Amino acid sequence: MLKAAIVGLGGWGQILVNSVQGKSDAIQFTAGVTRTPPKAQDFADKHGFPLDNDYDAALSDPDIDAIVLATPHQQHADQIISAAAAGKHIFVEKPFTMTKESAEAAVAAAKDADRVLALGHNRRFLPSVLELKKRLAAEALGTILHIETNFSGASGLRFHPDNWRSNRRESPAGGMGAMGIHMVDMMINLCGPMTEARTISTRRAVEIDIDDTTSILFRFANGMTGYLGTLAATVPTQRIEIFGSKGSIEIRGELSFTHRPIDGTVEPIDYPKFDKEEAELEAFAAACAGGPVYPLPTDEAIHGIAVFEAIVESALSDKPVKIA
């Protein structure tokens, strides 16, 4: 069993722990690191691991095999590099890093140390997404023309000014870091690399100084186009739809799948509830144990951050930006 330290015990760090602790035979959290231990002490006691605020102590602990990072975005690159140097496998929440250059440095550090580096884009594990990939591979939609995505919510209306996500450095282009980055990964996963981004991003309703309304148009290397909307001041929304010369396939939320052929009968599939956090952490543990490679290649993780960087640059310049 992989013994891991959870670093960052805010809301999302606790979700990761809850998904596997006491349930999984593949991974167990045996330590926790957080900036404010008293706030998470009851949670750590409940799940049976000691808690500290010293990241270096976790890195030097020989009984810890892996580090799971649920920390602010700006910290990821340095934390990954330090963990790799300490001989730990690394699972990191999205966004991977904030720049392509730092993403490349993080990947190089893990590769040089021969450690697994896994990025937490958990939607790759959803049965609905796996079915969509299968149908795309079978050319069920013919020539792919366009992909539309939206990942939105109301979190911007709830953020306190002291919350780290209320800082534009951590949340450039509004909801991109918290939500939209997942749809960037879905586009890469389903349709391949992108070559250009054109962003409009503005603040309409939130009181904190971040954008809440962001729209992006993309060009893909294969010639198709794409759209991503991410709003931080509206009802929760998740949607992916791919349009092709033979029809479209849409996923709403995570469980509702609909194939609409031009010629034929509409096919809806409703999937049962699925724990995507458990799936990603167990896939990480399996990769660390020498099993199947984690199903998000590091070159795609780097490309996702190159896209993110281009989105932010385009929002600032109000011009299309080529994706390196």
Q: Could you name the key traits of this structure?
A:
324 residues, alpha/beta, Rossmann fold, Dihydrodipicolinate Reductase, domain 2, 2 domains, nine-stranded mixed sheet, six-stranded parallel sheet, 26% strand, globular
The poorly predicted ranges are none
CATH architecture title of the largest domain: 2-Layer Sandwich
Q: According to CATH, what is the class of the largest domain?
A: Alpha Beta
Q: What number of domains?
A: 2
Query: What's the pLDDT, averaged over the residues?
Result: 96
Which structural class is indicated by helix and strand composition?
alpha/beta
Order of helices and strands: EHEHEHEHEHEHEHHEEEEEEEHHE
Distance between the termini: 39 Å
Strand residue percentage:
25-35%
CATH topology of the largest domain, which one? Dihydrodipicolinate Reductase, domain 2
Instruction: Give the strand order of the largest sheet, numbering strands 1, 2, ... along the chain.
Output: 14-13-12-11-7-10-9-8-15
CATH homologous superfamily grouping of the largest domain: Dihydrodipicolinate Reductase, domain 2
Put simply, the count of helices is: 10
The largest sheet, given as strand count, sense and whether it forms a barrel, is:
9 strands, mixed
Q: Calculate Rg over CA atoms.
A: 20 Å
* Helix proportion range: 25-40%
How many β-strands, per DSSP?
15
Morphology: globular
